[in-house]
Request: fold
Amino acid sequence: MNDTINDTRERILDAAERLFMAHGYEGTSMRLLTTEAAVNLAAVNYHFGSKEGLLQAVFRRRLVWLNGERLRLLNEMEAKANGAPLRPSQIVEAFFGTLLTMGEREELGGMTFLRLIGRTLTEPADFIRAFLASEYSEVVDRYKAALYRALPEVTREEIAWRFQFMLGAMSYAIAGTDALRIVGGPELASDTAHPTAHELKVRLMPFLLGGLRAPLPEMDGKASPH
Amino acid sequence: MNDTINDTRERILDAAERLFMAHGYEGTSMRLLTTEAAVNLAAVNYHFGSKEGLLQAVFRRRLVWLNGERLRLLNEMEAKANGAPLRPSQIVEAFFGTLLTMGEREELGGMTFLRLIGRTLTEPADFIRAFLASEYSEVVDRYKAALYRALPEVTREEIAWRFQFMLGAMSYAIAGTDALRIVGGPELASDTAHPTAHELKVRLMPFLLGGLRAPLPEMDGKASPH
DNA sequence: GTCTATATTCAGATAGAC
DNA sequence: GTCTATCTGAATATAGAC
Reply:
């Protein structure tokens, strides 16, 4: 058997994952990419049709596992709970912990893919946001539904907001491990500039749960009081 | 007096703020920008030297007020406290509340600038991250120091991490108001797709404080226990 | 300060030989 | 499937007339 095809495809996907992570989608040229992957310039278009097609392939390669695993875990927990609501910590752990676990497993992309996800969620290009939204829609719907049941005293609107906040905290936590260095300072230097996925998880989870279960805001309408 | 100069400069800055917000830095061309601003293509280079110079001017116009106000509030609170540590909620309110307040004031850029900040913190271009880090360094150092005193039982490292998480949650909360729509769904539709700065603030603050004051993780070293 | 015209570079994509 | 050579368009930046 000839695996030259897969070799080339995989080399392109690996290089794209790394370069999109480091320089963003618009900041990565096909010329640099094909040079780094040691393949011909025309190979990307042959295998993936276009640069857009390449980006989608980069993500699909990982998201199939990630979101499949998230759904599998949720199904399993719900089967075990036998109709009872899940605990919020279980749900958060399954959703975010599964992602962070990928950072420890090189065959699933490791920290490179983690950082790529963290960064790409804020890419401005319309097609990227539309693509990710569609890839995520099923799993997000299922997890939101689980949170509704787990936190019946919290409005659905508030849960949706807090889901968004959790995604943001996670995304920055990851991206900030080597990109954004605004907080910076000696506390996050050397050692922790490249924390392991395990350390990230240990630090992030309490924060997310603390936020998710925080006291509800007193809503007084949207306009400020005269 | 002739204010043609300022007119042109301001029109360019306004258009840049809006377009960098909507399409990102790399995704915004000077041709589109000068067309929208109704100025000549060469005007940007004349007034700002380069596209990089323009981005820095766009931010400086707003950050002077923002970070000045943050420092002023912190000084004021510390003077009043008379040597006693501040409460965490005061600190968080001053840092994040000041930013969110800008969203209500059109003369400070309104929601457009808020969304721009949310998005730009994750721009991959090196010069942007370096520029923002240097613009933020003083105010972040001062606020971290205030948090150290306010939360003496929490390690400095943990506080730095949680500062980063809070920045992320805030950033997504803002960017997600019109960009990233991963959580989406009917709960965040229509009404809340463009929440007021006030609503954003009311929802975000409890989450940030809940995360900041969450129970500390049990650290068991960085390697996972075989 | 503002404009036109253009220099220069680089992007993504593809035709067609092998 | 892979390669070279090239098309086509768009980007930032600037020279120089007004």
